Amino acid sequence: MRGRKDGTHDAIVRRFRQLGCSVIELHATGIPGCPDLGVGLLGRTELVECKDPKTAYGRRGFNGNQTAFARDWRGGKVWLCSSEDEATALVQNWRRS
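The structure corresponding to this sequence follows.
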């Protein structure tokens, strides 16, 4: 699956940008389990994994490589996002914290 975008990917990126975030797309890095996006806001960088709830793969959440990456990553939490509304909620949460 490395390098493939989930069906929700582009809409989520668009929403983050509409909300004033910087976004770097990481899905094609070739690093096993690397999250799909780096999202910059308020001097912070958040890692976000996009999922498509319309697919069985997307409904399962993190796969094995993604779980290992999130477990071993020494930075902040890796967030899951499956819709534009969830992207909005994440940004609101980040702005509050």
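Residues 9-96 form a domain with the Trna Endonuclease; Chain: A, domain 1 fold (CATH 3.40.1350.10).
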